[in-house]
Design a protein that fits this description.
Order of helices and strands: EEHHEHEHEHEHEEEEEHEHEHHHEE
Number of helices: 11
CATH superfamily: Thiolase/Chalcone synthase
CATH architecture: 3-Layer(aba) Sandwich
Number of domains: 1
Helix content: 25-40%
Strand order of the largest sheet: 5-4-6-7-1-8-15-14-13
Radius of gyration: 20 Å
CATH class: Alpha Beta
Structural class: alpha+beta
CATH topology: Peroxisomal Thiolase, Chain A, domain 1
Number of strands: 15
Distance between the termini: 25 Å
C-alpha cells in the first residue's frame, strides 16, 4: 500500500516583519547588540518573517493554535470530512506545555474527533519524523487519512526580558553569539500535510516513495539546546538538576542556544548521508527535478553548495526551491511550508521527482525524503 500527500495548508501569523521592524518585536538590548543582529541577518539572508507576538510582546497564539490554524487552512481546500482523519502526528521544537504532548493540544484546538496521535519533539527534523509516522500508518493500512503538522512559536523566547538579569547578558548588554544567532534567525508559523492511501481526485498529489532519517548523536554533543546550562568545559546540565529554579533562570537555562561552530562540523556528515543514498541508488541527482533543502542561513547554503560541488553530488541551483528569504526559518514547520508553497505553485508536473532534505543541528540528525508528482493539474 502507498501513501500520498494530497493536501496541505499553512499559518503564518501577523503581517510579514521586515529586518527593520524586527527589533520592535523581539526587543532592544543595546546598540552593540543591534550591530551583532545586523551581522546575523547578513549571514542568514532572511528579508522578512512572521511573529506570533506583537510589538509589545503580547499574543493570543500558542503552538497548538498555530498548528490548528494550519489544519483549518488545509481542510478549507481539501475535499475531506475531518471525521475521516484517523491519525495526527505533530512536530515542534518546544511545546506550549511540558505535559501533555502537542498533538493533544492541536487536536483540542482544531476540534478533530477522537483519533490516534503522536507528539514528536526534536528540532527541524521532527517534521520528517511526523511525515514518516503518518505515511507508515497509511501504508500499513492502519488509517486511510492522516495529518502531519509542524508548528513553532520561537519568538516568545527572544524578547529582551528573557535575557535581563541573567548571566548570559554581558555588562555592555550583549549576548554570546550562540544566543544571538537564533534570536535573529528563528520565527513563527505552522504547516500541515494531509496524507492518504490514494492520490487526490482534485489535482496533483505527491507520492511518498521513501523517508530516510538518521541520528548521529553518537558522534556529537547537543548543538542547539533549550532547558540546559552549558558549562565552560562544554558539559550540559538539565535545568531541573540545578536544584533552584531561580538559579537555573539566571544561568540562562530557559534560553534557546546554538553552537554555530558545532553546526559547521555537522555539514560533512549531512552531505555523507546524501552520498550514501546516491550509492544505494535511492537518489540520482540528475533525476531530481525539485530540491527542497531546509537550511537556517544563506551562509550555510553556500557552504553546503561548496561541499556538494567538491564531492560531485551537487543538485543544480536552478532546481532548488526555498522560501527561507521571505518566510524565515520556522524550524519544524519549514519543510512543510516548502511543500505547501510548491504544491500551490504552477511549477509541478506529473512524473517530476521532489527531494526533501532536512538537516537538524539539535544533536545532528539528517533526513531525506523522495516524493513523486502524480495526478493531473486542475
Amino acid at each position: 500500500m502507498e501513501a500520498y500527500v494530497t493536501g496541505s495548508g499553512q499559518c503564518l501569523p501577523g503581517p510579514p516583519i521586515s529586518n527593520a521592524q524586527m527589533e520592535a518585536h523581539i526587543g532592544h538590548l543595546s546598540p552593540r547588540a543591534r550591530r551583532m543582529g545586523q551581522l546575523m541577518l547578513r549571514r542568514n539572508g532572511i528579508r522578512s518573517r512572521h511573529y506570533a507576538i506583537d510589538a509589545e510582546g503580547r499574543s493570543d497564539w500558542t503552538v497548538a493554535k498555530l498548528g490548528a490554524a494550519a489544519i483549518a487552512d488545509l481542510l478549507s481546500r481539501a475535499n475531506l470530512d475531518p471525521a475521516a482523519i484517523g491519525f495526527l502526528a505533530t512536530a515542534t521544537t518546544q511545546n506550549d506545555l511540558m505535559v501533555p504532548g502537542l498533538a493533544s493540544g492541536v487536536q483540542a484546538e482544531s476540534g478533530l474527533p477522537p483519533l490516534e496521535v503522536a507528539s514528536l519533539q526534536s528540532v527541524c527534523a521532527s517534521s520528517m519524523m511526523a511525515m514518516k509516522s503518518a505515511a507508515l500508518q497509511i501504508a500499513a493500512g492502519e488509517h486511510r487519512a492522516a495529518l502531519a503538522v509542524g508548528a513553532e512559536f520561537a519568538s516568545r523566547y527572544f524578547r529582551s526580558g528573557q535575557y535581563r538579569d541573567t548571566d548570559t547578558l554581558a555588562d555592555d548588554m550583549t549576548l554570546a553569539s550562540d544566543a544571538e544567532f537564533l534570536r535573529w534567525t528563528l520565527s513563527d508559523g505552522a504547516a500541515a500535510l494531509l496524507i492518504e492511501d490514494r492520490p487526490s481526485a482534485r489535482g496533483l498529489s505527491l507520492r511518498i516513495d521513501w523517508v530516510s532519517q538518521r541520528s548521529f548523536a553518537d558522534r556529537f554533543a547537543p548543538c542547539m539546546t533549550g532547558g540546559a546550562i552549558r558549562g565552560a568545559d562544554g558539559s550540559i546540565t538539565p535545568w531541573s538538576m540545578v536544584g533552584d529554579i531561580h538559579a537555573a533562570a539566571r544561568a540562562g537555562a530557559f534560553q534557546l542556544r546554538q553552537d554555530v561552530d558545532a553546526l559547521h562540523r555537522m555539514l560533512p556528515v549531512w552531505l555523507a548521508e546524501l552520498m550514501r543514498l546516491i550509492d544505494e541508488g535511492r537518489v540520482v541527482p540528475e533525476e531530481v527535478d525539485w530540491f527542497l533543502c531546509h537550511f537556517s542561513a544563506h551562509a550555510l547554503r553556500e557552504e553546503m553548495t561548496r561541499l556538494a560541488t567538491r564531492a560531485g553530488c551537487m543538485i543544480p541551483a536552478e532546481r532548488w526551491f526555498t522560501n527561507l528569504y521571505d518566510k524565515g526559518n520556522v524550524g519544524a514547520a519549514s519543510p512543510f511550508l516548502m511543500i505547501d508553497d510548491l504544491l500551490r505553485s504552477a511549477a509541478l508536473t506529473p512524473g517530476q521527482r521532489v527531494l526533501c532534505a532536512v538537516p537538524e543541528s539539535g544533536q545532528c540528525i539528517m533526513a531525506y525524503a523522495m516524493l513523486t508528482v502524480v495526478g493531473e493539474r486542475r
